[in-house]
């Protein structure tokens, strides 16, 4: 092989850097000893190609406010194209702390806001030409729990009730779910014992409560794109004479406050 600044030959290896069209050729490796020799061929074909857009046109993406959106732009070309993004009628490439273009051409938008919705164009360019593809981003309102459940202190055998009301984007009307957990485990409507636990809309009731019902109850408001939670603690008080209830309530409230203060400090 003729000397070239972009070629380095090591025992058993040839390395080509900064490939040019004239590097296209058949490279032949010869191995020999006193018994003979063997040849092996390797074909290198250096492409010269304008950007080819591999991501289909008019892709639609959906993101939730406050989350991260990814718009894809897969492209092939030689030399490797430079990729940048424009939004609708903008004449300059997107830049700033909320925008980041990955090496594979994907545009990442951080902390998505309503004004980020709209049409985006991916541009890919090299010395041989340009290519573009357009995408649309739809931004939906984030799910929010507006009425969280409140801590309860209930006397044994009474009824405990938690309410959890959430608001969500109307586009999720058929894709919204509100569920409950106890101490991290899902509560299923068809697994309630003797119908003691009743879930109706944004309300859950525990009938004839006992010490076994004590714990942390979590409301989960979920769509296909986001989920939020809110917790409430249930404390069950034993059946004490009426005259002693004030002292018992005070002790339970004090115990609950201490536990919460310790948890918050950790």
From TrEMBL:
SUPFAM superfamilies: Immunoglobulin
Native organism: Scyliorhinus torazame (Cloudy catshark)
Protein name: Ig-like domain-containing protein
Coiled-coil annotated residue ranges, if any: none
UniProt cross-references to InterPro entries, sorted A to Z: Ig-like_dom, Ig-like_dom_sf, Ig-like_fold, Ig_I-set, Ig_sub, Ig_sub2, Neural/epithelial_adhesion
Domain Ig-like, first and last residues per copy: 51-140, 143-235
Entries under Gene3D superfamilies matching the protein: Immunoglobulins
Highest classification ranks of the organism: Eukaryota, Metazoa, Chordata, Craniata, Vertebrata
Keyword RNA-binding attached: no
Keyword list, A-Z: Disulfide bond, Immunoglobulin domain, Repeat, Signal
Pfam families attached to this UniProt entry: I-set (PF07679), Ig_3 (PF13927)
